[in-house]
Amino acid sequence: MGLNIKPLADRVLVEPAAAETTTASGIIIPDTAKEKPQKGTVVAIGTGKKDEPLTVQVGDTVLYGKYSGSELKLEGNDYLIMRESDILAII
Amino acid sequence: MGLNIKPLADRVLVEPAAAETTTASGIIIPDTAKEKPQKGTVVAIGTGKKDEPLTVQVGDTVLYGKYSGSELKLEGNDYLIMRESDILAII
Amino acid sequence: MGLNIKPLADRVLVEPAAAETTTASGIIIPDTAKEKPQKGTVVAIGTGKKDEPLTVQVGDTVLYGKYSGSELKLEGNDYLIMRESDILAII
Amino acid sequence: MGLNIKPLADRVLVEPAAAETTTASGIIIPDTAKEKPQKGTVVAIGTGKKDEPLTVQVGDTVLYGKYSGSELKLEGNDYLIMRESDILAII
Amino acid sequence: MGLNIKPLADRVLVEPAAAETTTASGIIIPDTAKEKPQKGTVVAIGTGKKDEPLTVQVGDTVLYGKYSGSELKLEGNDYLIMRESDILAII
Amino acid sequence: MGLNIKPLADRVLVEPAAAETTTASGIIIPDTAKEKPQKGTVVAIGTGKKDEPLTVQVGDTVLYGKYSGSELKLEGNDYLIMRESDILAII
Amino acid sequence: MGLNIKPLADRVLVEPAAAETTTASGIIIPDTAKEKPQKGTVVAIGTGKKDEPLTVQVGDTVLYGKYSGSELKLEGNDYLIMRESDILAII
């Protein structure tokens, strides 16, 4: 695809997975009142902060908090741009 | 079981113990208005923050605050992902 | 007694003294609107934070703020787990 | 054009792109309740903070949060002056 | 008197002076709406924080803010335990 | 004029420009709901903070946020005293 | 006069100037809704914080924010005790 976007510093561009109740790997996002992590794929990363390179890499599937990041549309697709610290885990 | 999940930085994945009033080791979670610690088992840990490796290890039984962490379901089980600083003690 | 619990980092497990109006050493917790320190015995301590070992030791009688810590029951007794910074003084 | 303005420290002067629903490169700013990134061109930059030179350069097209920066008019045009940390990505 | 109490870290035990309108040295606590400093005698001090020994000493007469510290009774007398940073001046 | 005032640390004394809708250099302060930068001339500066000398100099024309600083009158003129971090740009 | 008071750390004892509309040096405290700096004379200073000696000296005439410091009466006069960072400028 070759997205022409460079997130700044510790920011990461994530393509959210489609809403689903059960994924191929069996992850189910529970429907409760607590903050629910969301799943997506990392499509672009920043260069990190001084002395702190990023841990996630392009292609990683990640979980992140429900209200993390800012939405943007790029070539017709929805993305989220967030700080790496908003990412909970790589799955 | 071999869960395929890598918590980021100082995050820890905990499998909560089933609700109970008395455990084998005699711990009772009191039912009062104050914040009540919860019990669970560590199933995955992050790599820690720069210069601060984690203290808890996979397999530890831990106590944590009632509202700590984010819920997620993984292969049909409920887990919580939280920062190590949300963990009060290893029992 | 040999409690099997390891508080994390700078946390301390305290067994609160029974409610009383006058203690053997003459301490009376006044009944006013201001925050009242409470008294208890340290029964387990963490390993401290990086470069900051703990000051209190197991067996110390300590004063702490009224709303400090989280309650837990262990082998039938009530305890509080709190950060050492919640402890005001050793008496 | 030669604007005679020197943003201080980590501040950046941005000329916002005209409101649009679809750009040449296909970026669409979605119309939802979440914070929407905006697009603009960097026209002047500060000298950075101590030991932290700026990453963006004059001429970069950048995305920034909807409520970032202070408005000012300069030689008849509208600009925003904001901190580099308000900039999400270079596109 | 030999009070058996060790304030922790940067905490100081103060015996408040009796309420008065004019002291021997002429200090009058004004009765206005602004925060009024109070006067007392330091009776016990902590060991200070890392690399920061305390400045006040046992026996110093000090001024402190009206709402500083926690009250406690010890051998029949009222005391306040507060951080040294709550102390405004030695008089 | 020789104002006899020494701002402390990172503070700067600014003489605000008269209210205007268009300046000689074409700057127009827009009249919208967003925070509007103001313009003025630096007439005195502090010595900076430890290891951080100031960037602005006496005589610089600067832009600053609408609610920055404290007003004072000196020899019949109105001034604002503010921290250098309240200054957005030199024009 | 020889006031017997030692402000702690970065605190400064200031004797406020009498309320006035125009001073000898022409300073007029404007009567508007914005925070208005006040004027006074430094009569005692602390020893500063670690590695940060104070800048103001006993005898300096200073401007400070309207709500800075705590009031106290000493030998019949009104004083304010405040942190040096509450002082805006030396005049």
TrEMBL record, chains A, B, C, D, E, F, G:
Record keyword Cytoplasm present: yes
Q: Which domain of life is it from?
A: Bacteria
Q: Which InterPro entries match?
A: Chaperonin_GroES (IPR020818), Chaperonin_GroES_sf (IPR037124), Chaprnonin_Cpn10_CS (IPR018369), GroES-like_sf (IPR011032)
The entry's keywords: Chaperone, Cytoplasm
UniProt entry tagged with the keyword Iron-sulfur? no
Pfam family, any one: Cpn10
Q: Which PROSITE patterns match?
A: CHAPERONINS_CPN10 (PS00681)
The protein's location, in the record's own words, is:
Cytoplasm
The text of the family note is: Belongs to the GroES chaperonin family.
Assembly and partners?
Heptamer of 7 subunits arranged in a ring. Interacts with the chaperonin GroEL.
PANTHER family listed in its UniProt record? 10 KDA HEAT SHOCK PROTEIN, CO-CHAPERONIN GROES
Role of this protein? Together with the chaperonin GroEL, plays an essential role in assisting protein folding. The GroEL-GroES system forms a nano-cage that allows encapsulation of the non-native substrate proteins and provides a physical environment optimized to promote and accelerate protein folding. GroES binds to the apical surface of the GroEL ring, thereby capping the opening of the GroEL channel.
The protein's name in its UniProt record: Co-chaperonin GroES
Query: What species does this protein belong to?
Result: Pseudofulvibacter geojedonensis
Question: Lineage from the top down?
Answer: Bacteria, Pseudomonadati, Bacteroidota, Flavobacteriia, Flavobacteriales
